[in-house]
Design goal:
Number of strands: 29
Shape: elongated
Low-confidence stretches: 1-10, 105-131, 133-165, 363-369, 371-401
Mean pLDDT: 79
Distance between the termini: 76 Å
Strand content: 5-15%
Helix content: 40-55%
């Protein structure tokens, strides 16, 4: 029995990645449904599955515009690194978990979303975001509320792909809360599902590897039932079909060889002397009353006999007066005569005609049947017949004709009667089949929901799924469970149920999805789902209205639809009395409606009153709204806004409202340029509920604010110590890649300018470690220069140790300027170390011009090699081409003076006399005139004081200083 210990991790996991029009998608598909937890921290979206799922292959992300990396941390955890500003959300769809990444550019160009500023002008009217912001009308929402049918354009899987031309297994599911009879048959390339339950709202759901190849089902209203039909994909038109039923849930398996095919039933022929008595009969004990359909394609009639169970099928047969279609459960006939009759007699389905049935000769029957059993290939689809004048084709309808959640129909008995019925039903369950038990439990679920008994409703629906597991993924059960969870306040779990793709075609689900998202504070997506029409809420019982309509009204106002918001509020305010908590919510929304209409006085009045109430929630909400309004109108200043918001921080704790208050407070601190306090408050806000949508907004604002502080124009006006503290305290906000390196570089330069050399060197050291190639060489030279400015030559030489390898891989054109720069820095370091010979040795490796000559002169000067210094300075003077007829610049005057000093100290009186004769007149108009006269006068005229003046001057000269100072700029 050791094989039973194999872990679940051995099960196949398939991962797919695809790029959609407005979002990127990653799909995790398991062999069976699995639970998961998901959260996003910064740019990392982490999803943890309850079922171990080791991956040997990660899908290619080359086509994904919003994803940088997908990785698996361990057997249950995957991490998706999304690009800056993106947000991700997971949704369950059967045995698939779908992660959609939203935000930023899409394959279509859309208008950019404005990003918050770190510093907001003092005259901005809305520095505090209003309490309810209209949802931005963007090309795509931050995150879709429901995962649409999965149609991946890029499929990279762990398991080997099956050939696309093969008939992969597929399952079609149709379920209901009451027992169904069904007939499943095929006509040409179309599969039909016909049930005896009228006004069906849900559509059949398809699952399988190529489920997206199925077109949408047509739904046809018929008397006494509902019919669905779908054209089968080309590679499934000749595949085997098997039907299974649990009473409330029917499953149609296509191309599934392991399923047991139904037994073909053949008719018994009864031939009498009188042709009118001839008949055909099929033994079908589970047959129900016949249904009649007009085929929209051929405009003829199909007579269908549904059954309550499975195990009976029929091969296609053609008779002179009718055609028997290929069926997989039940029977389907296409009459060719008007007098064709189908009846149910005892355990048989009987076909006859008053005009008499005509049969082929008995001798032909056996061969005919043998031929039929080969199953004909799919027929080519004939062109649709023209509709006769005055004839109306059977309507193909959508799901808009009815609703799943019908509180008014379910609320027939009072609450006491419901309790009595619950006891009666539960006590009688043991005597019923699982399907019967589930049907009764679902009926109790509906009644409980209509009476606001949410805990009981959830218990009943969970019990129904327990006794009949096949119900779990049906549309009606997911809708009922979702609404029950909403009534319990468990919006996250409710949203998972309500976002099932099986509910996509049911318009009323838009209300419930919108409500769930609103309760989760995801107002943008809630606004995309909220419909304009308000007929359904007006029919809800009071308990339901009070619970949910305020969320719908708030969603409408947040998307800027004042008229819809006020219509929804009117549903409540028309009531004679409202519970206090509902009245406060409505008054708060009335204030917002007034603000959006420009009646700020009315809004302020409503919010002022609420801000003094004893209810903590609405005291905090109204207080926040009031501060926002007064600040935008300049009725309070920055300091007052901060004071009021600081007090509001503790008025309400534990959900998105606390986050919002902190967000607003952090924004005002940032405007006041109190960056440390602002970032601290914002960080705390984002950490309160990391998985919340607002947390992502706060993080995005922090990142943008951080980047703005380190822009050159802002950084120049910021105290360098404050900038460094922000950088170190909130380093997690540093963008990755080149953008982050640019910020570090800018800060290092600002610190050098402020003579904070040690701090600047530490930042440049990080740049060296985090860079490669010529970028690392540049950072190393900057670090060496800072170390030399700080008189730390050993550290400068160490900084330059690793530059040779990247230089050897660079082109000559790129490498040579760097080598020259490095040689100058190394020579300067040896000079500071009192190693002039080593310094000259390094300098001799590069051309002797410009900065190299200047450094040579400086090294000779510092080591008192005056003749060497004089020779280098002479070449520099010659390069300057100084004209004695034009005024000298300060730099030229300094250069000539230095040359003269070096000649004086080298006792080179002959050249010194020439310098005096050549430049004396030009030097008289410079600031160096007096010192030049002292240095160049004849020896017999020079006194002790002159020599001391020269010695003092030499100690102050640093001819290479300008080269190093350039690294500060």
């Amino acid at each position: 029995m050791a094989f039973m210990l194999l872990p679940l991790a051995a099960q196949a996991l398939e991962i797919r990645a695809s790029e959609k029009e407005n979002f990127s998608r990653v799909v995790f598909e398991f062999p069976q449904r699995t639970d998961y937890d998901a959260s996003q921290q910064g740019n990392i979206f982490r999803i943890t599955f309850k079922t171990p799922a080791p991956a040997t292959t990660i899908p290619s992300i080359s086509a994904l515009t919003r994803v940088e990396k997908i990785a698996q941390s361990n057997d249950t955890v995957f991490e998706i690194t999304v690009k800056s500003g993106m947000s991700a959300r997971a949704a369950a769809l059967g045995n698939r978990v779908i992660v959609d990444i939203k935000g930023g550019p899409s394959t279509q160009t859309s208008a950019p979303t404005p990003t918050p500023e770190a510093s907001i002008p003092s005259d901005a009217p809305d520095v505090l975001t209003p309490p309810i912001e209209p949802v931005k009308k963007a090309t795509e929402p931050v995150m879709p509320a429901v995962a649409p049918p999965v149609v991946e354009t890029l499929k990279t899987t762990i398991a080997a792909e099956k050939p696309t031309g093969a008939a992969s297994p597929h399952t079609i599911t149709l379920g209901s809360s009451s027992a169904l009879s069904m007939a499943v048959f095929k006509r040409d390339d179309r599969l039909w599902l016909v049930t005896n339950q009228p006004n069906m709202v849900v559509f059949p759901q398809v699952e399988g590897r190529q489920a997206e190849d199925f077109p949408p089902f047509d739904k046809i209203a018929i008397q006494g039932g509902t019919a669905y039909r779908v054209q089968l994909p080309a590679n499934l038109r000749t595949a085997g079909v098997v039907v299974e039923s649990e009473g409330l849930v029917w499953k149609i398996f296509i191309a599934t060889p392991e399923k047991q095919k139904a037994i073909d039933i053949w008719p018994l022929r009864t031939i009498e002397a009188n042709a009118a008595d001839n008949k055909l009969s099929w033994k079908l004990p589970q047959a129900q009353d016949r249904l009649q359909i007009e085929d929209p394609q051929y405009h003829d009639q199909i007579i269908v006999v549904p059954v309550t169970g499975t195990g009976f099928a029929a091969v296609p047969q053609s008779f002179l007066q009718f055609e028997l279609l290929e069926s997989y459960t039940g029977l389907a006939f296409v009459p060719e005569i008007e007098t064709f009759l189908v009846t149910k007699e005892a355990d048989q389905v009987v076909v006859r005609s008053p005009d008499g049935l005509m049969f082929s000769p008995a001798s032909d029957v056996s061969g005919y049947i043998a031929e039929i059993k080969k199953l004909q290939a799919a027929k080519a689809e004939p062109a649709p017949a023209a509709t006769k004048e005055g004839e109306v084709a059977a309507p193909v309808v959508s799901a808009k004709e009815a609703g799943l959640i019908r509180f008014e129909d379910w609320r027939q008995a009072g609450l006491e009667e419901l309790k009595r019925q619950s006891v009666s039903v539960l006590s009688g369950l043991a005597a019923k089949t699982p399907a019967g038990q589930a049907e009764d439990l679902i009926a109790l679920t509906k009644s409980s929901l209509a009476h606001g008994q949410s805990a009981e409703a959830k218990g009943f629906i969970d019990y129904a799924v327990l006794v009949l597991p096949g119900l779990a993924d049906t549309a009606e059960v997911r809708a009922l469970r979702g609404v029950a969870l909403l009534q319990l306040g468990q919006a996250d779990l409710a949203y998972r149920e309500l976002s099932a793709s099986s509910l996509d075609n049911i318009p009323e689900m838009a209300y419930w999805r919108s409500i769930a998202l609103a309760m989760l504070e995801d107002w943008q997506q809630a606004g995309t789902f909220l419909p304009q029409e308000t007929a359904i809420p007006t029919n809800w019982p009071d308990e339901i209205k009070y619970r949910f309509i305020p969320f719908m009204a708030e969603t409408a106002l947040r998307k800027g639809d004042i008229a819809l918001g006020e219509r929804l509020m009117a549903i409540l305010t028309n009531e004679a009395t409202l519970p206090p908590y509902v009245k406060m919510h409505v008054d708060y929304l009335k204030g917002e409606s007034a603000r959006q209409r420009g009646d700020n006085e009315r809004a302020e009045q409503l919010w002022e009153e609420l801000s003094k109430s004893t209810d903590d929630l609405y005291r905090a909400r109204a207080g926040l709204a009031l501060v926002s309004l007064q600040y935008s109108q300049k009725k309070i200043d920055q300091a007052e806004a901060i004071d009021k918001l600081e007090r509001l921080r503790y008025a309400w704790r534990g959900d998105a409202l606390e986050m919002t208050v902190n967000f607003r407070l952090g924004q005002v601190y940032m405007e006041a340029k109190d960056y440390l306090k602002g970032f601290s408050v914002l960080r705390n806000a984002a950490s309160l509920t990391p998985e919340a949508e607002l947390s992502g907004d706060i993080t995005a604002f922090m990142v943008e604010s951080f980047k703005k502080i380190f822009q050159p124009e802002t950084l120049k006006e910021t105290d360098p110590l404050l900038a460094l503290t922000v950088y170190e305290e909130f380093g997690e906000l540093l963008p990755p890649g080149e953008e982050g390196k640019a910020i570090t570089q800018a800060l290092a330069e600002r610190l050098r300018e402020a003579d904070m050399l040690e701090q600047s060197a530490k930042l440049l050291g990080k740049q060296v470690k985090n860079s490669s190639g010529l970028e690392a060489v540049t950072a190393a030279t900057q670090l060496a220069a800072v170390r030399l400015i700080d008189r730390n030559p050993e550290a400068a030489l160490k900084a330059l140790e690793g530059v040779e390898e990247p230089l050897s891989k660079a082109s000559t054109e790129d490498a040579e300027p760097k080598r020259r720069e490095i040689a100058l820095l190394r020579a300067r370091a040896h000079s500071q170390l009192k190693q002039p010979d080593e310094a000259f040795k390094v300098l001799n490796t590069i051309p002797q011009e410009g900065d190299a000559l200047r450094l040579r002169a400086d090294i000779a000067w510092q080591s008192q090699r005056w003749q060497d210094a004089a020779e280098a300075l002479e070449r520099l003077v010659q390069a300057e081409r100084i004209s004695v007829t034009r005024p000298m610049t300060d730099a030229q005057a300094n250069l000539v003076l230095n040359w003269a000093v070096a000649l004086n100290l080298a006792d080179n009186r002959y050249v010194l006399a020439n310098v005096r004769e050549r430049f004396a007149l030009a030097m008289q108009s410079t600031k160096n005139a007096k010192l030049f006269d002292v240095v160049t006068r004849a020896r017999q005229n020079a006194g002790l004081a002159d020599r001391e003046t020269i010695r003092s001057f030499t100690s102050e000269v640093d001819m290479f200083k300008d080269f190093l100072e350039s690294y500060k700029k």
